Amino acid sequence: MTRLLCLLILTANTISSQHIDFQYKQKSVQPEGVYFVRPFGGESDFFSHVQHLEAPYPGGSGFRSFLLSLKDSINQLPRLKSLKRTQMAIPLPIVDLQFEGNEYNGSAPNDNHIAMSKNGLIVSVINTNIFLFDSQGDSLLTVQSLQQFCAPTGLTDAKYDPRILYDPDEDRFIIVILNGFTWQSSRIVVGFSRSNNPYDDGWNLYVLNGSPLSNQTWSDYPHLAVSQSDLFITFNTFLNGSFNNSGYVESTFWQIDKMAGYNGSAEMSTSYFYDIRYQPDGVDTLRPIFNFTPIKGGSGHYGNKIFLLSNENLAASSNRYFLLTVEGKTGQSILSVSEFRTETAYGLPPDARQMANHRFDCVDARIQDGFFENNVLHFVHNTISPLNGAGFIYGRIDRPESFNKKIKTTHYFHDSLDYGFPAISYTGRNVLENDAIITFNHCGRNYPSGMSACYVDSDGNLSERQEIERGIGFVDVLGIGVQRFYERWGDYSGGQRIYQSPGRVIGAGYGSKANRRPETRIAVLSSPLLDNSAPLPFNFASEFKLFPNPATRFFEVEFVLEQAQRLRFVLMPAFMGTGGEIVLLASDVRKGTNRFTFDTSPLRNGMYTLLIQSEDGEIIKKSKVMVVR
């Protein structure tokens, strides 16, 4: 089904008479399922992971190389100090508590995301693992790799880009995990919790095809939100896999009957929206809009509709935003689009500066997060700052569906620190309060990499930076040779309103450790309007540490591939009588230098041999592994 619509351009103060053509298509695609999983599992979990260590380079093949080519000149711009951000006497958010979250075990970027239920269950995810924590009982329930969580589906390729969402209206969780970097292997695992306690009651898992149009594209970078009836998952699609990526194709999204997922129904209604195109200024042809971010509700859903926000996130400078609205339930919905332009421009962010001349990739200026409450849409995204550094934009749209909408954007930046990957959550306690807390990552040439926050009052004014976790130093896990100063920072962070305690949010961000490894920091913050008068709805231990002595558990080995290929990672005990071979992972691996990591905790003491094998049995690498505890 193809729809050709008219796109109306709006500015902050006037309505333009110019019209732009807009089109989209949608189809129904039945997922695979239902699979059942409990997070604690019953098998050994080795947390196996392959990390490609070589940074893309400008002029090379692939989308990230194309992006670096765009940013190369931006990174050469001098950092200015002649302009100060306008400061106002806005109170700081209150840090109630913060602690180390998911354990790093070989993957970058972290891709921190987090959700918390009304009964105090916290589900936190990063690029390799999931943990469930009971804040009421002050106990860690389970830690599980993405690979093992998805095991009932039979998918064996690399798992990445996890997203977690809590649906306060249905008191359930939804998790999304990607599988595979090629169109042949690309799948999306969607998990719906069977109750508000998935630790006891488990999840219903469904598998979506990452190439539903059979056009040799694969799906990357999910984002999700829920309406009254449906789940929305957005994607960017690419050609030919991550190791020979010939480029971006388009951005798409799924609309899925969430109640069927919660109920474990074998039949699930879906709508897949694609070929979403607009006509840019001075161009005769329609072009795809890049990257959609679904806008969550502030205190709950806002009916059987969803807003999706986009911008020109690869532009060196732009003031253009696109607001998409999906009205209706799955199978009956209609998409409409409006465009607006702001007085304040944004642009492709430069790399963020770390200590010791290391740097973080800030990716692009795509919308990172947003919420809608009291007829106000709030959003945040990365940008180049007025000082040519890395900062972020806070924006708000009053009455987004009216012709008299008011749009305001504000740069948030610092003269010696770089900021990135913000998340925003609603902290208002009634319809008269439109305040929020933004959590974000920070770093500096002479300042440790960590996590910060700021408060947004009801008028849209931002406080100064409140430090959550300063960090210990800088992150150094990816680069090799001349590329060793390049690190992955994002690609997103997580934040959510604590629904049982209005005025508070929980966030998951970035930190740096003494061993130059990244960490996840989890923080609970309060609006300054609470003034510490409301007690916390849970009881954490004062000295809480999730993972004692992690350094003794993980074994890692580097290897080089002359060409991209599919590999098996197999562990052989010194004596076959002790159990035979253990297949740790089977996955497509990129050309160049890679690092394989796995957890030795499930193994008995003794000597093992790690074999890295091609599909035809050729041994790429052999390493001895000694386990002594």
Gap between N and C termini, in Å? Answer: 61 Å
The CATH architecture term of the largest domain is 7 Propeller
Global shape = globular
Number of extended strands: 42
Number of alpha- plus pi-helical segments:
4
Structure keywords:
single chain; about 625 residues; mainly beta; Methylamine Dehydrogenase, Chain H; Immunoglobulin-like; 2 domains; five-stranded antiparallel sheet; 4 helices; globular; disordered N terminus
Would you kindly provide a written description of the structure presented here, covering whatever features stand out?
The chain has 629 residues and is mainly beta. It has two domains: 25-40 and 64-531, YVTN repeat-like/Quinoprotein amine dehydrogenase (Methylamine Dehydrogenase, Chain H, 7 Propeller), CATH 2.130.10.10; 555-627, Outer membrane usher protein (Immunoglobulin-like, Sandwich). 4% of the residues lie in helices and 50% in strands. The chain is built from four helices and 42 strands. The strands form eight sheets. It has a 15-stranded mixed β-sheet that branches. It is globular and about 75 Å long. The model is unreliable at 2-19 and 542-551 (pLDDT under 50).
